[in-house]
Amino acid sequence: MAFNHLPAGVHDALVPLSVTPVTHSMPMAKNHRPDGPLTDSVSGVPRLAPGTVLDRLASGPSRASRITHTEHLPPRAGRHAVWPDRIRAEVIAAVRDAGIEHPWAHQAEAAEHALDGESVVVATGTASGKSLSYLVPVLSTLLDGAEAPNGRGATALYLAPTKALAADQRRSVKELSQPLGNAIRPAVYDGDTPFEEREWVRQYANYVLTNPDMLHRGILPSHPRWSSFLKSLKYVVIDECHTYRGVFGSHVAQVLRRLRRLCARYGASPVFLLASATAAEPSVAARRLTGLPVVEVADDASPRGELVFALWEPPLTDLEGEKGAPVRRSATAETADLLTDLTVQGVRSVAFVRSRRGAELIAVIAQERLAEVDRSLARRVAAYRGGYLPEERRALEQALHSGELLGLSATTALELGIDVSGLDAVLIAGYPGTRASLWQQAGRAGRAGQGALAVLVARDDPLDTFLVHHPEALFRQPVESTVLDPDNPYVLAPHLCAAAAELPLTEADLALFGPAAAGLLPQLEAAKLLRRRATAWHWTRRERAADLTDIRGEGGPPVQIVETGTGRLLGTVDAGSAHTTVHEGAVHLHQGRTYLVRSLDLDESVALVEQASPSYSTVARDTTAISVLETDTEIPWGDGRLCYGSVEVTNQVVSFLRRRVITGEVLGETKLDLPPRTLRTRAVWWTVTEDQLDEARINPEILGGALHAAEHASIGLLPLFATCDRWDIGGVSIPLHPDTLLPTVFVYDGHPGGAGFAERAFHTARTWLSATLEAIASCECEAGCPSCIQSPKCGNGNDPLHKRGAIRLLTALLRAAPEDRAQEEPPGSPRGSH
C-alpha cells in the first residue's frame, strides 16, 4: 500500500475558544517604550506603539503564554544622495513635488546604472523606495523621447506578477508624472482591459503596465501590431522579481527571452530594471531570469521604524483529532481573534493567509465577533483573494487606501508591492513558505516610517512548530536563493514553439534559449509541431502556439464558478486544484457566503454552485502511485541509497470527507468519480535495507507507519531548505516499491518537469532530514499529531502513522549519511542554469 501526501489546499478545522475582544481600557504594560507621537493619517487618532499593541493582544486569559519569542528590530536612519545629473530637471521637480527632496543612496545608484545602459536589480527591504529607483530614469528617458522630432519616441514596459500590483503602479506613475503633462502616457494592458481601450494602448501609451501572462499570450503573439512600441523600447521593468521562481519563474525566463528576440528583430535592445525583496544573490537570480548580466544594488539606505516581531503558538484544546492526537487551536481561528482585537483597538491591519478559504473564514469570523461589539465595526473588515472579479478587487484596494477598511484578511495576492502605507500591524497565519516571503509580508506594516507590529501565528504543522521554537531559523539566517530552471524541457519546448510561431526560429536563435534548445527541436519536429524549411523552423499548426502552455503551471484554463439560480460568475479556481476544491458536493466560500457545488464539468471548465448553509466543511481524499523513470544521481547512505531523478506520479481524487466546522469531527465520506491525472516530474527518494530496519528495531507491522510518518514530517520541513510552499511538493511512501525493491520514501515536485525543489532537497538531504528528525523527536505528543507527523493534506487520512518508528528509522538512516553535497553543486544553481 502506498501512502501519499499531495500538493493541495489546506483546509483548517476551526476550533474557536471564548475570546473577549481587547479594548482601549486595558492597562499598558510597565515596560512600554513609546515610539513618539504617531497619528493615523486617515482617522487622526493617535497611533499606538507596536509594543503597546502586542502587550494588549497578550493580556487576555492565557494569551501571554502563546508568545514563544519576541524580536525587536531597532529603527535605522537613512542615507541620502543626489540624483545623477542626467536626470531631467522636470522629473526631479516632480519627485520633489511628491515630497521627496533627496533620494536614498541606493535609489541614486540604481538610476546611474540604468542611465549607463546596464541592467540592474535593486534588492532592498520593503518600503525602501525601489519603485522610485526605476521610475526616475524611466520617466526621464520617456520625457527625452517625447521631444524626439520623428516617430513615437521612447517606450517602457512594466511587468508585475499580479494585476493588482500593475493597477497600483499605474496610479503611482500618474500621480508622479502629472506635472509632466501628456509626455508620460501610462496604461494598464491585461485581461481586465476593455477591448475598446486596447487599440489606444498599442498606439499611444509609452509606459505599458502588464503581467507575464499577457506578455506571453497577448503581446508577443501579436508583435506586428506592437512593432512601433517594441522598436522604441528602452526599458523593461520587472517588479517583485523574487516571485518568479520554480516552474512559474522558469516560464517567465523563457517569455523574457522571446521578448528580447523580438526586440532585436525591431532593432531594440532594452535595459532590464528589476526590483526584488531582499534575497540571496539577487544578481545571480536576475541573470537566470533575464539571460543577461545584471548589476546588483543591495545596500539598503532607507530609514526604518522599529519592528516588533512576535512568534505566536495557539494553545492546545481539549479536543482529540485523528487517532486521538491532541488538537491545537487552528491558526485560522486564532488569527481571526487577533484581527478582531486589532480592529477594536483601531489598529489598521492586514492578516495574510495561505489559502483562499482561510482568508474568507478569517473575515467571516472577525465580522461576526465585531458585530457583537459594534455593528459598524463589522463593515470595516473584509477578505481579499485571487479569484475575485476585477471590480471587486479594485473596490477593496480603494477601501484599504482610504482607510474605510481597518482590517483585511488577504492571500498573497496582496503580499506584493501594492502601496498599503499606513498599516500598523500584520498578522501572518502560518509560515508563508520562505523567509523572503515572511519579511515581504511583515514589511507591509510601518511603510510610512512608523513603528510596526508583525505576528507569525503558527499552524499545527511540523514546520511552523519547529520555527516558533527555533527563532534563530527565522531571525539569524539569510533569505533563500531563488530556484528556477529555464532548461526544464516541459517549460522550454512550448516556448520554442511559441517563438517559432512569432518569427521562424533559426540556428542563431538557439543560444538565446539555452543549451537544451537544440536537443528538443528534433522531438518537436517528430511531434509535427515544428517543421524545418531551409534554415529555419516554422510552427505548423493552425491553433495558437502560445496556448500550448499555462505559464503559472496550473494545468489548463481556470474553472469558472457559476451560481445556478442567477448565472452569476462568482470567480474562478485554477484547473490544478479543481478536483480537490470544487468537486461535486464541495463547500465553497466566496465573500463570506457559503455555497455547495452541485456539479463540476471538466470539459467546459465550469463548476455550478448554489448558496447554502452547511454545518460542515469538505476535504478531498485521493490515491497516488509513483514509478521511477530514470535515476540521475544516487549516493550510498550506509546500506541505503539517496537518489534523484525523474518519476511519473498518477493521482486520483476518490472521495471527500465532511467535517464539522467547529470541532473537525468527521461526519461521513462520499465517493467521487473523477479521472486520474498523471504527472511526470523530478523527485528525491531514499531507501533503507533490512539490516537498517533491524538496527532500528522496526518490524513489518510498523514499517508502513514509520515510513509514512517520516514522509509527512520531511515534506513539512522542506520549505525551510528549498524555496517552495508545502503544496508545491508531494510525497509517497511504500514498504516495498516495485522499482527499488526496498522500503522507499519519495518527495517530488508538484509541477510537470520539476521545479528545482527536489534537487535542492537532494543536495541538502542530511541537514533537511536531521531537522525532520528533531522536529518529530521534540514534539511533546505521545503518538503523533499535526505538529509533527500528521498532515492536513494526507490522501490516506493519516493512517497508518508510527511516530517512534519514524524516529528510529531516521536515526538509523542519518547515522550513515555523508555530509551534504551542496558544496559540490550549489543548490542555487540548478541544472542547466544560464
What would a concise description of this structure say?
This is DEAD/DEAH box helicase. InterPro entries: DEAD/DEAH_box_helicase_dom, Helicase_ATP-bd, Helicase_C-like, Helicase_put_actinobac, HRQ1_WHD, MZB, P-loop_NTPase. This protein is α/β, with parallel strands linked by helices and 834 residues long.
Derived from helix and strand composition plus strand pairing, the structural class reads: alpha/beta
Shape: globular
Give the quaternary arrangement of the chains. Answer: single chain
**Number of beta-strand segments:** 31
Helix content: 25-40%
**Strand residues, percent:** 15-25%
Q: Average pLDDT value?
A: 85
Please compute the radius of gyration using only Cα atoms: 27 Å
SS field, number of helical segments: 26
N/C terminus separation? 41 Å
* Low-confidence segments: 1-44, 822-834
Largest sheet: 7 strands, antiparallel
GO molecular function: helicase activity
Protein name: DEAD/DEAH box helicase
Pfam families: DEAD, Helicase_C, MZB, WHD_HRQ1
Keywords: ATP-binding, Helicase, Hydrolase, Nucleotide-binding
